[in-house]
Design a protein that fits this description.
- Helix content is 41%, strand content 18%.
- It is α+β, with helices and mostly antiparallel strands.
- It folds into two domains: 16-79; 82-177 and 218-250, Methane Monooxygenase Hydroxylase, Chain G, domain 1, CATH 1.20.58.
- It has a three-stranded antiparallel beta sheet with strand order 1-3-2, with no helix packed on it. Strands 4-5 form a two-stranded antiparallel ribbon.
- The protein starts with 15 loop residues before the first strand and ends with a helix.
- Residues 190-197 have low confidence and may be disordered.
């Protein structure tokens, strides 16, 4: 005998499933046949353990259903999450941690767009490889699948931001710069410190220069400032997404 029950994969792969089996003697009322549950209604003598699932609990009870005697058996099984964490969750977290590293590359190298695009395409290929491991259900959708969608979307946004920062770097130095870009460029730490050599001395002294009139902000300064902010914001988003996933899956 085989049976199926609707699965709730919201917390996949940390999910537990509860299934009911109902046994009814059709055509014979409870007055003629009354099913009674034994003190130990489930016999596990022929039970075989499974590598993917473990039996957590079970119980049996008798009910009256439309005048028929009904024996209801309820059992709960829990999925073993180790395989899915290693094959799906860990690579997804690794990809999310690699994405913001493109902002550490010098913008002059020209490899930033190539690296960010490579990470995006690599994760897209990874998704096609592991799609069979994630349950295809939209009601409800798995939290792991949501995290994977957020990760590839975030990777696409980083590619777009990287292209935009590169376009700023190659702008005409004489082009007008708005106040937002001036603020970002002025926050570059090394912009406020200049090296000065005093007359008659070979010693180099660091001089603080904080006056806006003495600092010329270039598009490179703006790009350096954007890189700094994007690294902080990106890793903050990655931390929030990953922590939210594990908390929501374990509750």
């Amino acid at each position: 005998m085989s049976s199926k029950c609707t699965a709730n994969v919201y917390k996949f792969p940390f999910d537990s499933q509860t299934c009911d089996l109902n046994f009814v003697v059709w055509g014979i009322s409870a007055n003629d046949i009354n099913l009674i549950a034994d003190s130990n209604p489930v016999d596990l003598s022929f039970y075989t353990s499974n590598s993917d699932w473990s039996l957590e609990s079970y119980k049996g009870e008798t009910l009256l259903w439309n005048g028929y005697s009904n024996f209801k058996m309820t059992f709960t099984i829990k999925r073993a999450p180790l395989y899915y964490n290693i094959v799906v969750a860990c690579p997804t977290i690794l990809f999310s941690l690699l994405n913001p590293l493109v902002f550490l590359l010098p913008i002059e190298s020209g490899d930033r767009i190539g690296l960010s695009t490579t990470i995006l395409l690599s994760y897209a290929i990874f998704l096609t490889m592991v799609q069979m491991a994630v349950p295809a259900s939209s009601n409800p959708m798995s939290l792991l699948l949501v995290m994977m969608i957020v990760t590839i979307t975030f990777s696409g946004i980083i590619v777009a931001v990287t292209i935009y920062i590169s376009s700023l770097y190659h702008r005409d130095p004489q082009s007008k710069m708005n106040n937002v870009f001036k603020f970002i460029g002025s926050k570059t730490p090394w912009r406020h410190r200049l090296s000065a050599i005093r007359p008659g001395s070979n010693d180099i002294e660091t001089v603080n220069v904080k006056s806006a009139t003495e600092i010329t902000i270039t598009w490179k300064d703006v790009c350096d400032g954007l890189d700094k902010y994007m690294i902080i914001i990106s890793y903050l988003i990655v931390f929030i997404v990953n922590v939210t996933y594990f908390i929501a899956s374990s509750v």
